[in-house]
């Protein structure tokens, strides 16, 4: 990682380290009807969602592609036996069976050529009655104009098609300007989904 990127990520982690867990993660926990208290935190960042999941009795397998994030979380959860932290991208992570998969603001960083296989692995990892909670990038997001970003944009129809065999519990679209974690505003276009895998 070059020095500029390292500086950018350092600033990001400093800003978000104290953030609470996402409310969507809390709601997803309440909607998990599977027998599994295993959760996957995809793109775990500084571990806010991981910390909440641990507090709810989950065993958590968390991963992030950024080494700095992984080191931060390994220190944060050094005394926790119910969490494993992995330095991995979506493509190379081994997805265990789980009752809950959390992918808040992370899944759209998967490479578009790899995304179909990644999604099949995620689907297969969720047990019947288990819940997916996460975000997808829409075609109008400003980051897509920057060709240095490798992103997977999807239309609303594309996103909903991913959830065949699931009950979509919540679906919302964000298509407006708003701040990034580091402060500057951008135009966001994302779809947030909470869905439960059917028993059949």
Key traits:
single chain, 200 residues, alpha/beta, Rossmann fold, seven-stranded mixed sheet, 6 helices, 30% strand, globular
Report the helical percentage.
Answer: 25-40%
Oligomer: single chain
Catalogue the unreliable spans.
none
Taking the alpha carbons of the first and last residues, their distance comes to 45 Å
Query: Could you state the order of secondary-structure elements as H and E?
Result: HHEHEHEEHEHEE
Q: What is the CATH architecture term?
A: 3-Layer(aba) Sandwich
Tell me how many strands there are: 7
Radius of gyration: 16 Å
Into which percentage range does the β-strand content fall? 25-35%
Shape: globular
- What's the story with the biggest beta sheet? 7 strands, mixed
CATH superfamily: Vaccinia Virus protein VP39
How many helix segments?
Answer: 6
CATH topology: Rossmann fold
Which structural category do the helix and sheet elements fall into?
A: alpha/beta
Mean pLDDT metric: 92
Could you say how many structural domains there are in total? 1
- How are the strands of the largest sheet arranged? 3-2-1-4-5-7-6
């Amino acid at each position: 990682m070059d020095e500029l990127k390292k500086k950018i990520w350092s600033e990001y982690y400093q800003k978000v380290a104290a953030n609470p867990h996402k409310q969507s993660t809390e709601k997803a926990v309440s909607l998990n009807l599977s027998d599994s208290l295993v959760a996957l935190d995809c793109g775990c960042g500084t571990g806010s969602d991981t910390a909440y999941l641990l507090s709810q009795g989950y065993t958590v397998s968390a991963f992030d592609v950024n080494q700095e994030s992984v080191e931060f979380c390994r220190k944060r959860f050094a005394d926790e036996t119910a969490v494993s932290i992995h330095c991995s991208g979506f493509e190379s992570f081994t997805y265990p069976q789980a009752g809950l998969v959390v992918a808040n603001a992370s899944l759209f960083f998967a490479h578009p050529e790899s995304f179909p296989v990644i999604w099949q692995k995620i689907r297969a990892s969720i047990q019947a009655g288990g819940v997916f909670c996460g975000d997808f990038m829409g075609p109008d997001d400003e980051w897509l104009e920057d060709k240095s970003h490798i992103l997977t944009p999807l239309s609303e129809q594309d996103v909903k098609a991913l959830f065949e065999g699931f009950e979509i519990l919540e679906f919302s679209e964000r298509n407006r300007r708003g701040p990034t974690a580091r402060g500057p505003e951008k135009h966001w276009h994302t779809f947030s989904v909470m869905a439960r895998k059917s028993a059949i």
